[in-house]
Amino acid sequence: MSVHPKEQRIILKYADEPGYTPDIDCYMKNGGYEMLKKAVGMEKQAICDEVKNSQLRGRGGAGFPAGVKWSFVDRKSGKPVYMVCNCDESEPGTFKDRQIVHKDPHQLIEGIIISSFATDCAKAFIYIREEMPKGAEILNQAIKEAKEKNFVGDDILGSGYSCDIVVHRGAAAYICGEETGLIESLEGKRANPRIKPPYFPAVLGLYMCPTIVNNVETLCNVLHILRMGADEFAKIGRPNNTGTRIWCVSGGVKRPGYYEVAGITLGELVYDICGGPKDGRTIKAIIPGGSSMKILKSGERFTGKDRDGNGYDWGIEDIPLDYDGIAAAGSMSGSGGMMVLDDSVEIPVALANLMAFYSHESCGQCTPCREGSLWLKKITTRMVHGQARPDDVDLMKSVADQIEGRTICAFGFAVAWPVQSYLAKFEDEFREFAERHSRMGGDRTAAKELACNH
Amino acid sequence: MNLKPETLAEIEEAIPKYPEKQSAVMPMLHAIQKDQGLLTNEAAEWVAAKLEIAPIHVLSVITFYPFFRQHKIGRRHIRICRTLACAMAGGAKVCDKMLSEFDTRLNEVSPGGEVTVEFAECLASCGTAPVMLVDDEIYENLDEAKAQEICEKIKAEVIQA
Q1: How far away is chain A from the Cα of B77, in angstroms, using its nearest Cα?
Q2: pLDDT tens, position by position, A322-333
Q3: Percent of chain A with pLDDT over 90
Q4: Into how many domains does chain B fold?
Q5: Domain for residue B12, yes or no?
Q6: Domain holding B57: CATH number?
Q7: Which among B21, B33, B104, B122 is the top mutation candidate for probing chain A, defined by the most A β-carbons within 10 Å of its own β-carbon?
Q8: What's the alpha-carbon Rg for chain B, to the nearest Å?
Q9: Where are the domains positioned within chain A?
């Protein structure tokens, strides 16, 4: 995959270079593990301060400042602290961690060890989803190589600090991306997310010990923050939205793929980098940050005032492509998985596809989510099959509203937000679709294929 | 339990990696499923005894995770992504092609025992949709013609084996 001139590759700098291989020799030839050598000679707190000052925000979905998360670790308990790398990349639309793990695994290993050293973790785990079986093999091989060179394991580079990394394979449950669900899974249980508070595993996490859970891309960034210095890193992108982000674009564009960028607009990503819609098509809507995020509609105007009190009035393509920009447009950048829906896609059918996903993935602990997601699947499915009932559109909204905020974890929002936002912006299409398909005796093949809900 | 020596070795290696041994449930189940093709109640009891936990804890894990199974599958395991990006790119047609090539139905062992075709949720490769896994191997940018090629390859391999 060639690198677009508008990209600013830091994390993926080498990933697609011809001849670049995932082994340790190639990584070290390109300056790999030099930062670890420097880091083990630094004060731990100084590294934590750099990460905090860089304003790095988590790349997994919620966008919580990583340095602040680290500072929550309970040091008084005397218990061991654990580091967990969340590589359960499961949010539909997202495929960035796959690139790092498959093409440049040592970058992740180095990021994990530096982060574990800085926060004094006793052991690190990489929780990798089972849908990437090769990824687990590559990581295990990389850890073996790193151990041989004393970058991982006992007394790392003579620093007196020891840390092993264990690769833990999941088994295809989306809820393991939720950090407390992931911890339960790592403990050998069903991945039922834990009741909050405590809100952060940094207080009580794995084996009821303080635990830091960070995304793959977040941990890789730690390495570059140290290399560049927090101040230089913070100059990339906008304040509070520092560093690059790897955006994954799929659906109705000419050049889908992963692109590492900073400081550009949504329009620059979709039109300049991805080439805009396919020939003869127009863009109807964009799901900005993974399938759980609220949809943005073409032609919509996004108005309001920013933090400094300046007014803005954006079309979809003007939205700054970062946490605050997409939040100002009423959605979230999530995990950076952008799905573009062109005018060939019927919104109710897209929702039927996603509701089948969410009802399959609900862990089943909370009644509103377990029952509600199934209801939403049933309603959207009967719509696709031409059996919608007159009050189904209102019923969907009512069910979604009763899930949101009434569950142990954020999965409830992930089910409700698509339903609420699709209905808010495409209600007429839902009503028209339900009516048309109820009347139509004919061919529903295309709708059934897109719903793909067997 | 009649496990291969390499499976037993993998299990013995996995347990001490974790500060608490119950964490080894999933790695043990992965190893046993690879060895036996499925996870029986006997396997659950064996894992439970090994880790000194109640068998229900192991069964509850087996039944929670979609990639653990208690039933037999064909010699090759085909999982086609059904989630939105792949569905928009024609994943359903690819699935239909796989089913018709092996004269089988979704989630069933094909009549000749060659394959089991299933849908899976997002395989995290949406930029190269539609995609599918054949055992551990991912195939990307699929269409019906490519699906046909993969079927022919599988048929040849299965007959040879």
Answers
A1: 13
A2: 999 999 999 999
A3: 94
A4: 2
A5: yes
A6: 1.10.10
A7: B122
A8: 18
A9: 24-235, 241-342, 347-450
Q: Helix A44-53 crosses helix A216-228 at what angle (to 10 degrees)?
A: 100
A53 to each of A8, A67, A68, how far by Cα in Å? 21, 8, 10
Cβ pair A173:B64 closer than 8 A: yes
How far is residue B138's CA from residue A441's CA, in Å, rounded to a whole number?
38
For A240-295, the pLDDT digits (tens) are 999 999 999 999 999 999 999 999 999 999 999 999 999 999 999 999 999 999 99
Angstrom distance (rounded) from CA A365 to CA A374: 13
pTM for the whole structure: 0.97
Q: What is the crossing angle of helices A367-384 and A347-361, to 10°?
A: 140
CATH 1.20.1440.230 for domain A347-450: yes
Last residue of a domain, one of B42, B64, B86: B64
State whether A339 and B84 contact (CB < 8 Å).
yes
Chain A from 15 to 44: CB within 8 A of any B CB: none
A398, two tokens? 């009512």
CB contact under 8 A, A450 and B88: yes
CA pair distance A333, A321, nearest whole angstrom: 8
Residue pointed to by tokens 């980098």: A273
CB-count burial class (<10 Å; 0-12, 13-18, 19+) for A255: middle
| Residue range(s) defining the domain that contains residue B25 | 5-64
Taking 70 as the threshold, does the pLDDT of residue A29 lie above it? yes
Nearest CA in chain A to B120: A172
In a domain, B144, yes or no: yes
- Distance (Å, whole) CA A374 – CA A344: 26
- The reply to whether A347-450 shares the fold of A241-342 is no
Minimal Cα–Cα distance from B140 to chain A, Å? Answer: 12
Q: Are residues B81 and B152 in the same domain?
A: yes
Give me the CATH topology for the region A24-235. Answer: Rossmann fold (3.40.50)
| CATH number of the domain bearing residue B126 | 3.40.30.10
In CATH, the number for domain A241-342 is 3.10.20.600
Most B CBs within 10 A among A95, A103, A129, hence the mutation to make, goes to A95
User: What DSSP character marks residue A93?
Assistant: T
Q: Directed axis angle between helix A96-103 and helix A216-228, to 10°?
A: 70
Asked if the structure places residue B42 within a domain, the reply is yes
Looking up tokens 């024609």 gives B90
Rg of the Cα atoms in chain A: 22
Give me the residue from B92, B129, B138 closest to A250, CB to CB: B129
Shortest Cα–Cα distance, B118 to chain A (Å): 10
Q: Which of residues 122-161 of B touch A (CB under 8 A)?
A: 122-129, 133, 136, 138
Q: Report chain A's mean pLDDT, rounded to a whole number.
A: 96
- What does the CA dihedral A21, A22, A26, A30 come to, rounded to 10 degrees? 100
**Is B69 a member of any domain?**
no
10 Å CB burial of residue A62 (0-12, 13-18, 19+) is: middle
Q: Taking CB atoms and an 8 Å cutoff, what residues of chain A touch B29? A: 171
